[in-house]
Structures are given as structure tokens and as C-alpha cells.
Amino acid sequence: MGFARLPLARVSGLRFWKLCGSGTGEGFTPRPNTAVYAILCVWDSKAQAQSAPRAYHAPGESCQRAVIVERNDGEKSGSVILEMLLVIILGSTLGVVMALASSGFVLGVGALGALRGTASAHLPETLQALTPFAPLLTLLLAAGAVLLVRRLFSITRWHGPADSILAAHQSGNTLDVKAGLGSTLAAFLSAGGGASVGQYGPLVHFGATVAALVAKLRRTRVRADTFIGCGVAAAISAGFNAPLAGMVFAHGAILRHYSWRSIAPISIASIAASATAQRF
Fold this sequence. Notes:
There is one protein chain. This protein is mainly α. The protein has helices spanning 5-9, 46-51, 53-56, 73-117, 134-152, 161-168, 177-192, 200-217, 224-240, 243-255, 260-277; strands spanning 14-20, 38-43. Helices cover 60% and strands 5% of the residues. A two-stranded antiparallel ribbon has the order 1-2. The N and C termini lie far apart (66 Å).
């Protein structure tokens, strides 16, 4: 393999080359296999690449296989620009939608709580004796509404942030959108009825559900887990007015990794959600 360096340096049209050796046995072993190696090359034209295998291998050697991948730089540049614009639009849209949904969720729970606190004042005189039982009655009403939601959405179990994390680490878009929407609605009714249900856990899963729905409706190069990260980051950013916390939570708790491909859309969604939430 080492003898190929001198011929490669003199090959016309060769922009870049990299020699790739191999080991014996399973491949990744300390003892190299000098009879098998590969060369990664970048050429000026397809014709030069097609004639290349005969140009630089050492005497007595033969090229077993040559794979040529042709790339159109003009089309790729246009595709990259279009993809960047699409990422900005999708990230901003998810941020705005989740900001509105988070604000509506929190304000709605607060309104139901205020209504629950003054429910006894609206009871007729004949039912004033039930005033001490008003909290229990509202819980029963909320429980009935939750059972109705479970039946309408055909939910076998309630979904939450753990399902968002699982979906982000599976291939494809596996998040159950219908169950996610039903679980969020049930959490809203439960919190409004006085049950001990947090607000931001359901919002996190709702953000992931909305993002998964958008990913199914619009096919792009953006991965499904990045969509989920955008929705979660937007929910945290809008709920706590903390865009940086939304980005960190999405990468650290949901995706469990940091990558250049996901940082841009997640940051855009988180900032857009925070800016929108501050308007309401």
C-alpha cells in the first residue's frame, strides 16, 4: 500500500486521496493485511475517475472493485440552501405553535382552577349544603371527562415524556400522535379539575407529539428525533421563558447527544417559542 503514494502524487485530476489499510482476521487487529487496502479519492471529472484504477496501483496488483459516486455541486448548493430555509421555517413554526399551546395550557388550567374555587358561590340555595364537597365533585367531573377522553382516543395507557425519549432513540417516526394528543388533553382536564398532575411534563410530551405529526406530514432530510427535540425545546422554552434551558434539555434529556445537524433547528424553535410566549 505504501508504494501507491508516489504514483498518486503524479496522477492528473486527483484533488484528494486517502489510503485506508485493513487488518487480518476480523479486520480491526494490530496485525495489518498488506494485500487488501482501499483508496478514497476526489477527482475533477467522472472520466478521470473511471480511468484511475489502472493508473496508480503497484505492479502485480489488481483493483478488485471501484465505486464511483458523482456529485453535482450546483444542484447540491441549491438543495442545501433550500434545506436551510426549510429548517428555519419549520423550527420557527414549531416554536410559535408550542408557545401558543403552552400559554393556552397554563392559562386554561389557571382559569379552571379559579372557576373551581368559586364553584360553590354559583350553586343554588338548595345545594348549598354540598359546598364542603365541591372539590370532590370537581374531581369526579374531571375523572369522568378523562375516562371519556380515554374512550374517544382509544388509549390503552397514558403517554408521557418517557415515550418521547424512547421515540427519539428509535429508527423512524414511532411516536403515537393520537395517544399523545389524548394524553395531553387528559392531563389538562385532570390539572384543571384539581388532580395532582404537573403541567410541564404533559407539555413536553405534547411538544414531541406535535413535532412528530409535522414530521409525518412534511418529509424532509431533518431526522424525526430532531423534530422531537424541536418540539420539546419549544415547550420548555415557552413554559419557563428559558430558551437556553430548552436547548439543553432537548439535547441532554431527549436526544442524549449534541450534533451540528440538530443544533440549528432546535435553537430556532426554542428562541421562537420564547419570543412568542413573551408576547402573551
